[in-house]
Each structure stands twice: as structure tokens, then as C-alpha cells.
């Protein structure tokens, strides 16, 4: 039976979520603040399959709880709940490591659908054979990335990426050489069908180029493909810098 931790300080909402999740066959625990949630994971880091996490909590925000989990290396799926409507709040949630973001008030069916999808995604990852995806260590250019520990080294210097940047980088590495569209990135990295502006994806690409390219204006690894999306090349041929710069300028 899948175990879910609901972190919500509004008792009526927490009880309602618990009741409906249990009706779906899940085992559900409730805590009312962030520190209590972290204590649950300290006692047994693998105790839960999903966290439904309110953003506005007493003493410790949902942002801080999610960020703390990721810093400890815990990749349990996190569904963040919030009444905040600003795009910046949603993006910050993804940056600290949330997998999905659901705005209050929400429809019960949407909550249940997101819950099923996140649990199914976790099961697919756990069941995947070791050689079915990129390994935990990846090297390209001047960079070495450990996807298990979130450690990134570029030219001998440590670089800290956000959780979303790491997810984006891993998706590119797993699809090395293929053209991926913005829609694919939004779906597989952000877990969304759309965002208010496609510049959100583009801005994250700019960040990756700053981290990993010798000359971000003339990228060799993270290439723009005009009218299509982006392509990651781990080991470009000698002529790649000029070709990449041409592709990048055409896309801008």
C-alpha cells in the first residue's frame, strides 16, 4: 500500500484530503507543520511514497521543507498546495524541488489525478532496469555531474544547480542528440502542459549555458534548433562551435 504524508495546518482541509485519499486505497499520515514533516523523514527517509505539502505553514514554509528534503538527497515526489496565484511562486516551488504545484481552491479529481500520476511515475523509475537511463555520473565538456548526490563540478569548481535545473539537465542527457520541444520539456521536467510564457524554458536554457558553456553566446552543448526546440550534444565535433552559434542566433 502506498503511503502519503499530508502536511497541512488547516485541519478541515487535511482531514478532507486524508479521507478521500484513504477512500482510494492509500495509507495517509497528517502533520500540521514543516518541522514535524522533516522529523517523519528523519526517522525513516523511505517511509513515504508521496508528500502533499502546503506552502503556507507555521514556523517553516513549504518551500523550506521541500528544499531541505532535496538537500538531504530525498527525491520523494512532492505535490505543493498553495493559494498564491503569482507565476513567480509556482516557479519558486519547482526550483526548490516540487514535482507538481496545485493552486487552492482545487478540484478533488485534479488532486487525485496528480497523486496517481506522481505515484505511477515513481513506480516506473524504481522499476526501471539500471541500464535503461543515464547513469548517476555524467561527464561532458569541462563538467562532471553526479545525479544521485546533485554534485556538479565545472572546470574543477563546484556549481550548485536548483532541483529544476538538475531535472532539466538530466532530461537533456537522457535524450542526447535528439531535438526536444518546449512542450516536451514542460511536460517531462515541469510536469505541466503549459506555462504563461515559453520564455520560462528559454531562461533555464540560458542558465545551463552559463554554467557549462565556455562561451554561452556560442554554445557547443545546448543548441537551439530554430522553430523546433533544443538539442543537447555531449561531445560535439570540431566544427560544432560555429554551427551552434548559427543555430542560437537563428532561434533568437
Walkthrough of the structure:
The chain has 252 residues and is α/β, with parallel strands linked by helices. The protein folds into 2 domains: 3-127, 3-Layer(aba) Sandwich (Rossmann fold), CATH 3.40.50.2300; 132-251, Orthogonal Bundle (Arc Repressor Mutant, subunit A), CATH 1.10.10.10. The chain has helices spanning 11-23, 34-43, 62-71, 87-95, 108-127, 163-174, 182-190, 199-212, 240-251; strands at 3-7, 27-31, 50-54, 78-82, 100-103, 137-140, 143-146, 151-154, 157-159, 179-180, 222-225, 229-232. Strands 2-1-3-4-5 form a 5-stranded parallel sheet, with helices on both faces. Helix 1 links the parallel strand 1 (3-7) and strand 2 (27-31). It is elongated, with a radius of gyration of 19 Å.
In short:
With 252 residues, the chain is α/β, with parallel strands linked by helices. It is 43% helix and 19% strand.
Comma- or semicolon-separated keywords:
alpha/beta, Rossmann fold, Arc Repressor Mutant, subunit A, 9 helices, 2 domains, 252 residues, 5-stranded parallel β-sheet, 4-stranded antiparallel β-sheet
Radius of gyration: 19 Å
- pLDDT under 50 segments (min length 5)? 128-133, 239-252
Identify the overall geometry.
elongated
Number of β-strand runs = 12
Strand content is 15-25%
Could you estimate the helical fraction of the residues in percent? Answer: 40-55%
Secondary-structure element pattern, one letter each = EHEHEHEHEHEEEEHEHHEEH
Outline the biggest β-sheet: 5 strands, parallel
The oligomeric state of the chains shown is single chain
As laid out across the biggest beta sheet, the strand order is 2-1-3-4-5
Q: What is the CATH C-level name of the largest domain? A: Alpha Beta
Q: Mean pLDDT, nearest integer?
A: 84
**Which homologous superfamily in CATH is the superfamily of the largest domain?**
Response regulator
Structural class: alpha/beta
**CATH topology term of the largest domain:** Rossmann fold
Cα-to-Cα separation, first versus last residue: 49 Å
Q: If classified by CATH, what would the architecture of the largest domain be?
A: 3-Layer(aba) Sandwich
- Overall tally of domains: 2
**Count of helical segments?**
9
